[in-house]
Write a structure and sequence with these properties.
The structure is a single chain. The protein is an alpha+beta fold. The protein has one domain: 2-Layer Sandwich (Alpha-Beta Plaits), CATH 3.30.70. It is built from two helices and four strands. Strands 2-3-1-4 form a four-stranded antiparallel sheet.
C-alpha cells in the first residue's frame, strides 16, 4: 500500500466544491482544511504508483477550482 499526502491550492470560491469532489474519490481517506501555503490536504491510499497516477489523471486533475497540487509519498509512519 502506498500512502500519499496531496497538498492543494484552491480558488477561494471553489473550496466547498473541491472538498466535495475529493470526498467522492474512494482512495482518498481524509480531506483536511489548512491554514498556510496550502488550502487542503488530502490523504490517499493506493496499491501502486500507476494507480496514483490514474487517480490524478481521471479524478483529481479534472476538478475545477484546484490551482495546483504538491504530492508527497509517505515513506514510513510512526504511530504513537
Amino acid at each position: 500500500m502506498i500512502r500519499a499526502l496531496i497538498f492543494c491550492k484552491i480558488e477561494h470560491k471553489a473550496m466547498k466544491h473541491v472538498i466535495n469532489q475529493l470526498k467522492k474519490i474512494p482512495q482518498i481517506k481524509k480531506v483536511l482544511s489548512l491554514t498556510g501555503d496550502y488550502d487542503i490536504l488530502a490523504e490517499i491510499d493506493v496499491e501502486s504508483p500507476e494507480i496514483l497516477y490514474d487517480v490524478f489523471e481521471n479524478n483529481i486533475d479534472p476538478i475545477e477550482g484546484i490551482i495546483n497540487t504538491n504530492t508527497h509519498v509517505v515513506m514510513k509512519s510512526f504511530e504513537k
